[in-house]
Design a protein that fits this description.
By secondary structure, the protein is mainly α. It is about 65% helix and about 0% strand. The chain is elongated. It comes from [Anoxybacillus] calidus.
Length: about 80
């Protein structure tokens, strides 16, 4: 995506190589862009980019929901001591 490429070029000299770099940049950009700006970025995406973006959104949203609901986390039933 051209926007990501341009953003990376603009920021790359300030990156530390830390995993948090992408989060900080993304949060900063999202704070500055309006809904209209975001929709324009989406309009510029090709099909592959759009599917990738929606796919990542779905994965992260489902992971959050699964964690929130506690699915997959089993609790040990209290064991009774039998003599």
């Amino acid at each position: 995506m051209r926007f990501v490429d341009e953003l990376y070029e603009y920021c790359k000299d300030r990156l530390t190589g830390d995993e948090e770099d992408a989060e900080v940049i993304a949060i900063s950009v999202l704070e500055e862009l309006s809904r209209k700006d975001l929709l324009n970025l989406v309009k510029e995406m090709n099909d592959e980019e759009l599917k990738s973006m929606v796919g990542l959104y779905l994965i992260e949203s489902l992971r959050a929901k699964i964690t929130e609901e506690g699915i997959g986390h089993t609790t040990m039933p209290s064991t009774q001591v039998l003599h």
